Amino acid sequence: MKNLKIKQKMLVLTAIPLLIAVVAIMAVSIYQIKASGEQEIQNLRFSMVEDKQAALKDSMDIVKSAVSPILKNYPQSPEALSQLKETLSAIRYGDEDGYIFAFTFDGETTVHPGQPQLVGQNMIDMQDSNGTKVIAELIKVARNGGGFVEYHWHKPSVDEELPKLSYATALHELGWMIGTGFYIDDIDSSINKLQSEVDNKVEKTVLLSLGIGLVILIVMITINLWVANRTMVRPILELSESARQMSLGKMDEEIKVNSSDEIGELADAISRMQKSLKVVFKKLRQKN
Predict the structure, then answer these.
(1) What is this structure's pTM?
(2) Which residues span the membrane (predicted)?
(3) 73-183 has which CATH code?
(4) CA trace torsion 236, 237, 241, 246 (10° rounding)
């Protein structure tokens, strides 16, 4: 800073606070947009999951009502169990990805139209890719009055393991857990889309803030340099030139005092020094 000229110092002193202000405003704006976006994402997920939960519970209530007459004939009717399995297996919805599944409380598969090869297998210890014991958790919530479980499961239409939300309830007459679920990859797709929109907003905010900040910075620097040039730089250069002329013995140039600030005080001091030197030079000439 010591080696910088006044204009350069004014440029630095003007630019730094403005840059700090622009960065601070940009940081606050980005934080607010991200916070708002995250809240919006949470609300969207909560709303979509809540809607699916309500639909799943309603579906299972309808299924239980549909199989209730069949259960009344069990165990007196030997055909009741087979009829129940056929009825549950025949229920399909949602482009074949929606179906009813059933397991005994011990974990043996009794109905699974989505993966019929599992029927007869015990799945109690089966875990998904996140380590969730899916069937054990579904049996647990079913025996406790019914409930929801999120996990990953094979989706027939795409032949891929995807996130799923299921509702399970108990058929205590049989010692079964029956349930159904929705694949919730569509929720993730909606959330990813919203997240992309939030990221775009952040990017636009950064660019807008930088653009506005750059314009303000240029305007403020231009104004400050113009003011500094008129009130500081030019008067100092004029005083410097007057001092140089005085060093050459030229005492006739008038030194104007146009302000009462430090530069004005300096001009007044140089003016008084000029007058004193004139007196000294006059006496010297008279002696000679």
Answers:
(1) 0.60
(2) 206-227
(3) 3.30.450.20
(4) 10
